[in-house]
Amino acid sequence: MKMIWAVTRPESAQRVIKALDTIGIGGMTRLHVTGHGRELRITLGTVHYSEIPKEMLMIVVPDGDVAKTVTTIRAEAKNSSKSQPDEGSIGDGKIFVTYAEDTFAIRTAGKTGGT
Amino acid sequence: MKQIIAIIRDEQIEATKQGLESIGLRGITFLYVTGRGQQKGKVSAQELGTSLNRHLRMQLESARTGNTTRDGKASEVPAPFHKDTEFAFGFLPKRMLIIIAPDEEVNRIVQAIVNANQTGKHGDGRIFVCPMISAIRVRTGEQGDKALF
């Protein structure tokens, strides 16, 4: 099993969630976080905002579903310009994939195969 | 060393704290999160009401009494499934616990979380166990299992 942490723009999060619904991934956890990547900060006049709000989604899926999950998240989370439709913009977010060795459902206290 | 990520009901947090304290666990990180399972957050209004923390409950009540959307039309979806709220996609308030523990403690901790949280109804939550490579105590610079207790 793999655990996927996806950081997205808050305004893309609902699109991502809808798209994950359509490929049959229903269970997920959502965190409001702040941070920045390569954009470093937003500057309005003389004021710098370096803690930019982001939305983090945590999804645990079986190994076989990782590729389609990551593709779906990326397709919805990127904000492309017309000249470069394959590339998104700075600040669109990142997707991290890590191991989840065991998953327990508290309701049944039994091991499960995914979220 | 393992990282245990547990997602539990908001109102079970005190029981869980007590349960974990009684097995001698000290270090826990708590996060406010929202989440849903395979039911996509479909619960009865009564159940939802008890699981909300005060802030979110206030938010919901204002939606229910107003019963209109932002543009002034009567809402199609009655609260608590008000379409303007975060619950539109069925995300319910939950707590996330992050615990880093040595391998041999994992079973005891998982058992304690299950005992404190199991009601048998949908929405009890999940526990994920993930590998963790190392830990460093900032105060002293100790590394590995020593840094945990």
Describe this structure in words.
- The complex is a heterodimer of chains A (115) and B (149).
- Chain A has 115 residues and is of the alpha+beta class.
- Chain A has a single domain, classed as Alpha-Beta Plaits.
- In chain A, a hairpin with a 2-residue loop joins β3 and β4.
- In chain A, α1 packs across α2.
- With 149 residues, chain B is of the alpha+beta class.
- Helices cover 28% and strands 21% of the residues of chain B.
- Chain B has 4 helices and 4 strands.
- A 4-stranded antiparallel β-sheet of chain B has the order 2-3-1-4, with helices on one face.
- In chain B, α1 packs antiparallel against α4.
- The relative contact order of chain B is 0.29.
- The chains are: A alpha+beta (115), B alpha+beta (149).
Radius of gyration of chain B (CA) equals 19 Å
What's the architecture of the largest domain in chain B in CATH terms? 2-Layer Sandwich
CATH fold assignment of the largest domain in chain B: Alpha-Beta Plaits
What structural class do helix, strand and pairing data of chain B support? alpha+beta
What is the CATH-assigned architecture of chain A?
Answer: 2-Layer Sandwich
The overall number of domains of chain A is 1
Please give the largest β-sheet of chain B.
Answer: 4 strands, antiparallel
Relative helix content of chain A: 10-25%
Secondary-structure blueprint:
The complex is a heterodimer of chains A (about 120) and B (about 150).
Chain A: E1 2-8, H1 10-22, E2 28-35, E3 42-44, E4 47-49, E5 52-61, H2 66-77, E6 93-99, E7 102-105, E8 110-111
Antiparallel strand pairs in A: 1-5, 1-6, 2-5, 3-4, 7-8
Helix pairs in contact in A: 1-2
Chain B: E1 2-9, H1 13-22, E2 29-36, H2 45-51, H3 54-66, E3 92-101, H4 106-117, E4 126-131
Antiparallel strand pairs in B: 1-3, 1-4, 2-3
Short description:
Chain A is of the alpha+beta class. Chain A has helices at residues 10-22, 66-77; strands at residues 2-8, 28-35, 42-44, 47-49, 52-61, 93-99, 102-105, 110-111.
